[in-house]
């Protein structure tokens, strides 16, 4: 199986390859199937990409979707179609216009997802915006600054913690606190901090510091921190 490498300005048609490497400003017109995709320069892929491993260290634009066992984005990526990945790790900046599905999603940088995100394990220490539903067995969100948003969040266990530096806390109220915003958060076990939501529903619900929740519905246990604001709580 051949390799495809573009080091300078160049273009190629799609096809099946062992390794695809874009080091310059390369364009591939058509669908690509390969074992490994490396984008170190500025790559444009006009078609769907299927790979075992995809790594974007430069800038990539994909007009189709990506299906891969492993995807790592250290640079900048815009993917207009759906993303299906066993493991997706975003340490740079990713704009994903479609659905995201897979086993594990790790966000250390910044991610924007245009539709729903369905994974087994969702971990975020960076910023994210999800226009649809975030659904995962385990949701671990650790916000270090700025704001993250999802329309709805569902899962078995959902945990959101917020970490502020002492320097940033001295500048409050001039700088907004790190926060998570959602319309609905629903799960079995929910622990939240620095979260704004209209409805939080679960078996066990723990509302921590700096939360603003319209309604809490719980089956077994409900706890609320002194600094948290909860409009109403109901045992269901």
From TrEMBL:
Belongs to the bactofilin family. This is Polymer-forming cytoskeletal protein. It comes from Bacillus sonorensis L12.
């Amino acid at each position: 199986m051949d390799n495809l490498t573009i080091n300078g300005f160049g273009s190629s048609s799609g096809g099946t390859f062992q390794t695809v490497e874009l080091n310059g400003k390369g364009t591939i017109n058509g669908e690509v199937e390969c074992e490994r995709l490396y984008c170190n320069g500025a790559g444009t892929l006009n078609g769907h990409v299927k790979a075992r491993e995809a790594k974007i260290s430069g800038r990539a634009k994909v007009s189709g979707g990506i299906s891969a066992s492993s995807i790592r984005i250290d640079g900048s990526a815009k993917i207009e179609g759906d993303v299906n990945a066993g493991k997706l790790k975003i340490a740079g900046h990713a704009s994903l216009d479609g659905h995201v599905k897979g086993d594990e999603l790790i966000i250390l940088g910044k991610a924007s997802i245009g539709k729903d995100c369905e994974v087994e394990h969702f971990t975020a220490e960076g910023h994210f915006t999800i226009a649809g539903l975030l659904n995962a067995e385990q949701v671990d969100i650790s916000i270090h600054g700025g704001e993250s948003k999802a329309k709805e969040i569902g899962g078995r266990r959902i945990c959101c913690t917020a970490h502020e530096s002492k320097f940033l806390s001295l500048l409050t109220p001039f700088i907004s606190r790190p926060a998570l915003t959602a319309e609905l958060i629903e799960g079995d076990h929910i622990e939240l901090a620095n979260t704004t939501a209209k409805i939080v529903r679960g078996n066990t619900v723990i509302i921590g510091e700096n939360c603003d929740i319209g309604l809490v519905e719980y089956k077994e246990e409900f706890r609320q921190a002194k600094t948290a604001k909860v409009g109403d709580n109901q045992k269901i």
